[in-house]
Each structure stands twice: as C-alpha cells, then as structure tokens.
Amino acid sequence: MRKQLPGFLFVLPALILLLVLMVYPLWQTVLFSFSDVSLPYFETKFVGLKHFIATVQRYEFPRIILNTLIWVFGSVLFQFTFAFAVALFLNNNFKGRIIIQTIALLPWAIPSIVAGNTWKWIMQTDFGLLNAMLKQLGLASLARPWLTDPSLALGSVLFATIWQGYPFLMVMLLAGMKAIPQEQYEAAEVDGANAFQRLISITIPNLKNIIVIVVMLQIVYAWNAFDLIFVMTGGGPGGATEILGLFIYRLGLNEFNFSQSSAVSVMLIGFVLLTMLIRNLLTRGEKIK
Predict the structure, then answer these.
(1) In a domain, 189, yes or no
(2) Average pLDDT, stretch 137-158?
C-alpha cells in the first residue's frame, strides 16, 4: 500500500478534476431532470418523469427532433462522402499534393465561432459575398436570403458545418489509406482489377474499422452541436434551425426552466450512449487497424 501511495497522489489532482468537472455536473443534470428546481438556491423536489413528459408535449419538440435528425445524418453523410473523396485524391502522388493537403486542412484549424461569423457574413442577404458574386456573374436570380428563409436556413448552416468538419475525417481516412500494403493493390492490378474494383475489394474493407470509429465520433459531435448554429442563426428563423443543443440553451438560459433543460440533456445523453452502443456492436470482436 505504501508503494502505491505515490502513484495515487500523482493521479489525485486529475481524479478531483474529473469529479468536479464531469461527474458532479452530470449527477446534477440527472437530478434536475427528475425534480422541480426552485431558484435562487436550486432546491429540488422529486417529481419523477413530469418534466420529460412536459418537454415531449411542447409544440416545438417534434420540429426540433426532426431538425436534429436532419442535422446529424445530413452533416455526417456529406462530411464523410466529401472527406472520403478528398482522401482518395490526396492518396495519389502528384506535384503540389502537400500544398493541396494543407489547404484542405485549413477549415479544421479555424475555430467554430470564427467560421460561423465568416459564413454568416458570406451568406448575408443584402451585403453578403455569395449574393454579391452571383449578381456580378449575372446570376442575380439565384441570390437568396440564405439564413433568413426557413426553407434554406438549415441547409445553409449544414453547408458551413460540412466545410468545417470534413478535414478531421479526411485526415483519419487518409492515414488509414497510407497504411494499406501496396502489395494488395499490385496483386489486384495483376489480376486485372480496375480502380473501382480495387476500391471496393481492398480500400473499403481495410478501412472498415476506421470508418466506423470516425463516423460514430462525428455522429456524437453532431448530436452535441451548438456553436456554429448559434452564431449563424441562433436557431432561427422561427426555429427552422433549432436543434437539441440550442433547445437546451433556450430552456435553461432564456426561460430559466432548468428542469426541462436537464430533461432534454438526459435525452441527448441517451442518444449519444445509443450511438456508442451501436459502434461497439459493429466493431465487437474485431481488431482495430
């Protein structure tokens, strides 16, 4: 025991931080979700599932769930598709590859707040760069109120998050592609396999575990998205871009309804845990390459 004491003392600060910054807030969130919370001292009274039921019955809840599902699956699908295409392109040896790879990584290096404000300016209706360019090119009829039209706002914000999020997937996929033995491709070429056949029979099977991991990570990130949408639209117009992360913010910090805000947070935790469970089932019994 005395020999183990120094090691325990070394990890004690990290353990304290873990308890204070993660375990305690999580416990408080779960407690608030099942309780009536009285301000200003946050006194609690257990009420069971009352706030979960009240939250689900709110008129805007179905729209928020739909927006969240569109956001999660849309952002992950298009981020992955674009990242995979770019990774395939950069996996070839050609002049200027390093420069293009560096440029492709730039969106990942930009903070979300900065990216959000930049795209907000680009897509601004009257003075935005996008509409100005369309007018200069004689395509004024294509100019749109990208962030103030309810039918366009969610798609516009999705475009911005795809632009910012694809480099992470690209880097992971490209690293996986570099690790695939070239002998497999050479043997396939000898057998007469074309580029598409090599992609299906060699590249994708070798990247299976990496694909599962990065897609699940992006799904978890998408469930918890907040900053980019908050900066660009604030959940508007008329709730057209409001997802669960912004709904939690509105309930807690605008309406001061900490019980319902915590209830939605617990639901969100459940969605994330379900995502991780699916990931574990998909990779169970397989060695991660």
Answers:
(1) yes
(2) 93
